[in-house]
Write a structure and sequence with these properties.
The complex is a heterodimer of chains A (533) and B (36). With 533 residues, chain A is mainly α. Chain A has helices spanning 2-24, 29-34, 41-52, 55-68, 73-101, 107-114, 118-151, 155-203, 207-216, 221-229, 248-264, 269-272, 281-317, 321-325, 328-339, 342-375, 383-411, 414-440, 446-466, 469-475, 477-482, 497-515, 522-528. Classes of the chains: A mainly alpha (533), B mainly alpha (36).
């Protein structure tokens, strides 16, 4: 216990110092909002990765992999290929240049200025302000619960200290404070996961032997009974196999987990703003290798460790992971405390806290800037007013999130489970077609951008409220009107909103763009694409 | 690795290949793209 407390205190002291460093280096609203466009590529890459990967990605999704198996590695592939390579090469470079051309400081401001539409800027700002706090609260609850279990302190105290520390360095340090501490936290996560990967494989006799043992579990009748008992959806073929195509298991893994999170990452406001923090494309080129390796070591390791934990649990307790741990969320914590040395559990506690803090700090920053710069008119306001407004916005975001983190577990616990997918899904469906159009299609009209955005948002909300059982059962609106959790039948209740809403949003954006005349002046388009080849 | 079924093996392989792609792209373009 003393070791855990000591390591945590040292970690917090370093984070505090980096937040102070950010404060010292913040002189203008440009510094506060986009790091003065002078952030080092290594810091940018680690910050992007650490923001991307939260507590839920390691603990939550790692446990889910213990339930569904290694088929989740398709999400890791999308995270690296789409979330890093495509995002940096095809989105990042144009976002950076266009953001610079338009003097945009936030994701909503970039798209609003590109299409000369205050509606777009305010709408995205409002989506961030309304939906992101629930997602932030969910990450905070996950981290606070982990701290409570490991340091034996009261949940409310854990939540308060966690929020207070993040609040101080985001409020004063701005994006520089956030990114400096992100880079430190990302490095910790990188080292922790690398040690975990080596330990788990070597504990099972190497890569091939580990996979062999995991595959052989499915030949044991006791294991097959337990798989049934934990209500694994139909179509499960073992932890080293893909689920049966188009079965319920397949739809959950492929549409909700792989596509829902894998594509959703491309239109995340708190990630896209990172592209505007570097001074040239060279920095983005240098950030790509670090980003790719980082994601491989985060989700790649979590999605291998989760399934392999079944072998450890079965050999010692005669039960598979979820049966022993009680639920997917507890698989990784229970696995660590049972099979890893005490010093590593202490280090990993800090890794989990770092994963939560680095994500939450960026979310606070995104919500704050949405209030300070996007929802209310920022034209003609001086530097100090804009900075003060962003800080007030951030304070509102922090208070709102902490309030939700206190209240959600007692009144609406299920909201936590759906919050990440909900936010990612809405962002992808509402913003992605417009974002691609903004960066690549000079002739796309403002009407098309707005139509696609409204269609994506509406379709996403409707599918979540009435069709996709995971959300509709929690939102309860379908139950109030139709007296049942979902009005869909067959496999449709398991088809993720992103599949439906993003498809509709893309179609509407293209059709409206073809049917409407260009409504943005050529000079403005030239200014947007200045220097973009 | 051969103990993984084809679909999972492909995912495992693509994770490693896409990481190599990121590394190669960064190294090849290390000094390109600088903006007086």
């Amino acid at each position: 216990m003393l070791l855990k407390v000591s390591i945590t205190v040292i970690y917090l002291a370093i984070v505090g110092y980096l937040g102070y460093l950010g404060y010292k280096h913040t002189k203008s609203s440009k510094d506060y909002l986009i790091g003065g466009r002078q952030i080092h590529p290594m810091v940018m890459a680690l910050s992007y990765g650490a923001t991307f990967i939260s507590t839920s990605a390691i603990v939550g999704f790692g446990g889910v992999a213990g339930y569904f198996g290694m088929s989740l590695l398709w999400l890791t592939f999308l995270n690296i290929f789409l979330g890093i390579f495509i995002a940096f090469v095809f989105f990042g470079k144009r976002t950076r240049k266009m953001g610079h051309n338009l003097d945009a400081h936030t994701f909503p401001e970039l798209l609003g200025k590109r299409f000369e539409s205050k509606l777009i800027q305010r709408f995205i700002g409002l989506v961030i302000f309304i939906f992101m706090p629930v997602y932030t609260a969910a990450v905070m609850i996950g981290a606070a619960t982990f701290i409570k279990d490991n340091l034996n302190i009261d949940y409310n105290a854990a939540l308060f200290f966690f929020a207070a520390i993040v609040a101080v360095y985001v409020f004063f340090g701005g994006l520089k404070g956030v990114m400096y501490s992100d880079a430190f936290q990302g490095t910790l996560m990188f080292v922790g996961m690398a040690i975990l990967l080596v330990s788990v494989y070597s504990g099972l006799g190497g890569v091939s032997a580990a996979h062999e043992k995991l595959k052989n579990l499915m030949t044991d009748p006791v294991v097959l009974e337990q798989v049934k008992a934990i209500k694994t959806p139909p179509g499960f073929n073992g932890w080293t196999s893909m689920p049966t195509a188009f079965s319920i298991n397949w739809w959950v893994v492929i549409s909700s987990i792989v596509l829902g999170v894998g594509i959703g990452v491309l239109a995340q406001p708190q990630l896209s703003v990172r592209f505007m923090t570097v001074k040239s494309d060279r920095e983005l080129n240098r950030a790509i290798p670090v980003g790719g390796l980082f994601i491989l070591l985060m989700t790649g390791v979590a999605f291998v460790i989760g399934p392999l934990s079944n072998v450890y649990f079965y050999e010692r307790f005669g039960k598979i992971a979820v049966a022993q741990a009680g639920n997917p969320d507890s698989v990784i914590p229970v696995f660590l405390s049972n099979f890893m040395p005490g010093w590593f559990v202490a280090v990993f506690l800090v890794v989990i806290v770092a994963a939560g803090m680095s994500t939450i700090s960026s979310q606070f920053h995104a919500i704050g800037t949405a209030v300070g710069r996007d929802i209310f008119d920022s034209e003609g306001k001086d530097e100090n007013t804009l900075m003060l407004r962003s800080r007030i916005g951030m304070l509102i975001a922090i208070i709102l999130t902490v309030f939700l983190a206190y209240i959600l577990p007692t009144v609406w616990n299920q909201a936590i489970a759906i919050s990440t997918g909900l936010f990612f899904g809405i962002c992808a469906a509402a913003f992605l077609p417009m974002y691609v159009g903004a960066l690549y299609f000079r002739n796309m009209s403002k009407v098309a951008a707005v139509s696609g955005m409204i269609t994506g948002f509406s379709a996403s909300m409707l599918w979540m409220m009435f069709f996709h059982k995971k959300e509709s059962a929690v939102l309860f609106i379908c139950n109030l009107i139709f007296k049942k959790d979902t009005i869909a039948t067959g496999v449709w209740p398991f088809v993720d909103p992103i599949v439906i809403a993003l498809t509709l949003s893309i179609i509407v954006t293209i059709v409206v763009s073809l049917l409407t005349k260009k409504d943005i002046k050529d000079e403005h388009i030239e200014a947007c694409f200045k220097g973009i080849k | 690795m051969s103990n993984l079924d084809f679909g999972v093996f492909m995912a495992y392989l693509l994770c490693i290949l896409s990481t190599i792609l990121c590394l190669a792209y960064g190294i090849i373009n290390w000094n390109k793209g600088k903006d007086e």
